[in-house]
Amino acid sequence: MKQIFEVAQQVQNFFDENNWQFCFIGGIALQRWAKPRLTNAADLTLLTGFGSEEIYIDKILAKFESRISNPKEFALRNRILLLQIENVGIDISLGALFFEESAVKRAVSYDFLPHIKLKICTAEDLVVFKAFANRTQDWADIENILIVQLKLDWKYINKQLAPLVELKEEPEILTKLEKLRKEI
Description:
This protein has 184 residues and is α+β, with helices and mostly antiparallel strands. 56% of the residues lie in helices and 20% in strands. The strands form 2 sheets. A 4-stranded mixed β-sheet has the order 1-2-4-3, with helices on both faces. Strands 5-6 form a two-stranded antiparallel sheet. Helix 6 (123-133) packs antiparallel against helix 7. The two termini are 28 Å apart. The mean pLDDT is 95.
């Protein structure tokens, strides 16, 4: 995990130098808000808005190496830039939605190791990100968050998640989350 935190710090330093708005989500944030688990990647949301993504992509690719061919085209099509730094996968989501803006604004800094302080999303925002992703591992991660974080702002979570699942046309995500919440 030390190497992932060190690589994440490199990326954060670069983003800070450019005055970009971002936060770490996924496995890194999970290390703070739940029972830690191994991860081999660092995921971030970078606010690019709609229409200016190329400026960010070009600057990032000038500094860091992609792990796929045609990274710019892939990123513009899928709104995610896939990097490889020192054997660590870095997935940068190109954020533009209201929820992503909110998550970045609410982000907090956390000391993971001496001299490594990373900007991470809140536990509530991590639940929203993971529920929206709706993968098996994400639901296991949500369960771990709920076990560790006993006082979550459920009003905020539901307010943020509801329009996202409507957009995705998967309203069952809300039902699944509420069922898990009641079980724990």
